[in-house]
Description:
Blueprint: H1 3-34, H2 41-58, H3 69-86, H4 96-118, H5 129-132, E1 135-137, H6 138-145, H7 153-157, E2 164-166, H8 167-189, H9 191-201, H10 203-208, H11 213-234, H12 245-248, H13 252-260, H14 265-285, H15 291-305
Antiparallel strand pairs: 1-2
Helix pairs in contact: 1-8, 1-11, 1-13, 1-14, 2-3, 2-4, 2-11, 3-11, 8-9, 9-11, 13-14, 13-15, 14-15
Amino acid sequence: MNAWIVGQAIINGFLAGGVYSLVGVGMTIIFGVMKMVNFAAGSYLVWGMYFTYFWQYVLGGSASPYLLIPLVVLSMIVFGYVSFKLTVRRVLNTSDTSYILITVGLMFFLQNLAETFLGTRPLSVYVPETYKNGSITLRALITRIVPSLADNAALAASPLGSLNLGFPRLIAFAVMLLLVLGVNILLTKTLLGRAMRATAENSEVAKMLGVDAERTYTIAFILGVTLAALAGLLVTPLYYVSISASVAFRTAPLMVIVLGGMGSIKGSFFGGILVGIVEALVTTLVDTQLSVASISILFLIVIYLRPQGLFGKKMRTA
Length: 318
């Protein structure tokens, strides 16, 4: 088997897994604080794509999607706030079944809303040619990061050094890293983060200590869906803007958060990377039709060996 093909598949999967990680981290924040799995994450991702298309159209159609991140974030803050207040807020502190029903219903509502007002015709976001079809070899990337390796003979002779990293996936992965680091700082170094962690640990005790639980739930939900929307923005150079894109991101992120361990940011990050690599290897080396099956098999193996997930904590039993 050609080592270059396997290496290229791993690189592609590693970078593509960053998008799964970003959506998974958003879902993990919502689950950690609210104990609710957001089944509508894929629909929010698609709305992030639509907001990217909308703002690019408003600004004349030539703005790079990466420059639209602040506008998409602002749009999703408003969109997430309104959808939270009209739907999720009404079932707070009820049963898990209510959470499932409201988020599944929200998923279909957001899809139908997009189809009603924006149509079903696939749209495309303009991406400068430099970014859309550009790439850099792994060797060139390493030598740019570590200039002292420019004359390294082993690196120059290795066929793996000629692996290509496409700019859209590389940029998406880099932005994902920055966002995940930002979320980690928010949760560990800020007063808001402490309030969110306290609410996640025990909402009743947090309320007694003066934490506004509903405000914390609102912020957690908005943050989670905004990360999903940013993932949508980052994949616009790779996918048409269409409601059908939500199908590709409906199952994988759910598996990512379970694989990584429910409530674990680190688990969602590494779980997304693992899912991306397995999916890319199976798609490249076996059959493109088996990508979902491969993720499902990985899911079953991990859950069988480690029911709490890769980074999840074991529940204490009496």
